[in-house]
C-alpha cells in the first residue's frame, strides 16, 4: 500500500529490531503510516549503518535476526503501520572477507568460483588485488599461516586447495588474490568499488542469477506481507538501472518503490517503474524558498574578503571532479581507457569529459544531450584534446558499447566524490545551500519556481518521497533553517565573522568560514562534536589535510581554533549571543519548511528525531541516539490540549509534525491537487501558501524582514468563502478574505481545513 508518510529509523546493533518494534505505538500516535528502516540484511560485523551487506540470505543477527524482523512486523501491524526497507543492490561489504561467503569463495577459487560473476572484477589484469598492506617494503613478511588461512594482523584470507606448504609468502604467491600496499587501491585495484571505497565491492545485479541471489530474502518479505515498500540505494552505480527497476517491479508488482537518485536542478527522473526519488530534489526547493535571494552579492563579497581568492562554483567543481576522475578513481579510469587502446590520450579525454559532465549520469539512449554538453565544455577547457574528445564521444553515445556503459557508472562516482564530498567543503560562501541534491550556485528559490516544481511533482510523481533530513545530508534541517537567517542579516554576519577569524585564526580561510557557519547553526554544540565535524570537513575538503595523509600541523591549528571558541570567554559569549539572535527566526523557518515538506505533493519522510529541533551535522553525528521518551511525553501533553510556545523545547515542531501527519493519514482525499495561494498586501511576499484540494498551507518566509516591516499589517489571503479550522490551534475562520495577522498570531505557520 502507498504510504501517506514514513519515519526513518537507523536500525543498528545498538538500536536493534527489538528497540525499533517498541516504537510502533509512538509512531502510530505521531501519525505516520510506515516505518522506514535502514538496511536489515547481514552486514560487516559491527557495521553501524548496514550498507556493507555481506550475506544477502538472512536478517542480520546483530539486529535481531529473523525473529526480530517477525516481531517488528507484528508490532507494526498491531499498530496499523507498514514497513519500508532500504536495500543495497550496487555493492557488498568485503572488509572482513570471511564474513562474506561469496567473496571468500572468489578469493579461494578465483575466476573458477561459482560466485566469480557476482562481482565486477577485471580478471584480465591477473590476480585479484586486495589493497590492505601497510606502506612498508617488508609488509608481506608479517603474513602467517593459520590452518587453511593466511593471516595479516586482524585480517584473514583463504588458502586455495592444494596451494599450502612453504613460507607464508610462498603460499600467498600461489593464491588467486594478491595482497598489496593500501596506497595502490585508487590506482590499481581491479574490481569496481562503491565510489573509492575498497571495502565495498560492486555487484553485478544485471546478471539474473546474481539478482535472484541478492534479492531472494527481500522479495520473500514482500511476498509474505512483511514489507510494503523498498528504498533502493545508489542505483546510479548499476550497469543498467532501467533494466534493474523493470526486474524489481516485476518481482514486487505492488510495492512502493523509491530510488536514491540525486537530480541536478531541472533534471528529470527517467520514467522508470518507480514512485519517485528519496526526496533530495524537494529538499533543495523547500530549503531555498526560505533564503533571501537579494543578499547573494553580500556573500560573494564576504567570501572574496575572507579567502583572498575568487573562483566560480563551476570552476571549483571542474577542479575537484577532475582530480577525483584522474586520481581517486584512477583504477576505474584505467579500465575505461583499456577499452580504447587506439586512443593514446584516452585517459585525459575521459577524465575531462567526466569532470564536465553536468549530471550524475546519463541513461542511454536517454540523456545523450548531457554527453553533448560535456563534450562542448571539455572542448572549451581543453582545445588541444578536441580530436580525442570527438573520437571518445562517438563511442560514448552508443548504449551497447562497453565503454559507454562503464562511463555512465564512472560519472556518477566522479560527481558524488568531486562535488558532495569535496567541493561542498571548499565552496563555503553560504553553506545552508551546500546540500545533497542542490547546486550551491543557486543561492535561493523564488516562490513562483517553488510552486512550478510542486505542481510538476503533483502531476508527474505524486507518490515520490520528500525529505528534509537523511543519513546523508551534510547538516540537519534545523541547522539549515537557522543558517538561512544569515541571508537576512548579511551585515551582522559580516561584522562578527570578520572579527572571529582574527580572534581564532586558521590557515585555511574557506574552511574557517564553513566552521563558523556550522557553529552558529548548531549552537549550543559541544566542543567534542564541533571538533569531530571540523576534522571530517577538513579531510573531506582535501585542501589542507586528507584522510590518507593527515597534516598534523594543520590539524593542530584546527584544534587550537576550536579550543579558542570554547576557552576564550569573550569569544564564547559573542558566538552564543549571535547564535541566540538568529535562533527565533530560525525556529520560524524550521516550522515553515517542515510544514511545507509534510503537506506538499509527495510522501513525506521524517528522519528519526527531527519531530523536535534537530541540530545534527553530517554522519556519524546524525546517527546519534534519539531520546524517544521525551518525545512520547511531549506528544502526550499535546494530546491533552497543551499549546506550546515556540521555544527551545521543540514541542511546537512536534505539534506541527503530528497534526499534519495525522491529517495526511486520516484525510488523504484533502491532498489530491496543488494550487498556489498568493497573499495581498504590502508584505505579501513574506507568505508562502498553497491549496492541496481541501487543505491550505500558510507559512512565514523571511521572518527578519517581516519584523523590520513591523508585522503583517494589511496582508490577507483570499479563500473561497467556506469556514475553515486551523489545525494547530483549533481556531475557526470564515469569509472570503482572511487577515494573515489573525491567522498567524500564535504560530508562524497554519494549516487550514475546510469545515
Automatic annotation (TrEMBL):
Residues 3-639 form the Glycosyl hydrolase family 13 catalytic domain. GO terms for molecular function: (1,4)-alpha-D-glucan 1-alpha-D-glucosylmutase activity. InterPro entries: GH, GH13_cat_dom, Maltooligo_trehalose_synth_4, Trehalose_TreY. One of its GO terms (biological process) is alpha-glucan catabolic process. Gene3D superfamilies: Glycosidases, Maltooligosyl trehalose synthase, domain 2, Maltooligosyl trehalose synthase, domain 3, Maltooligosyl trehalose synthase, domain 4. It comes from the Bacteria. It holds the Pfam family Alpha-amylase. This is Malto-oligosyltrehalose synthase. It comes from Actinoplanes cyaneus. The gene is treY.
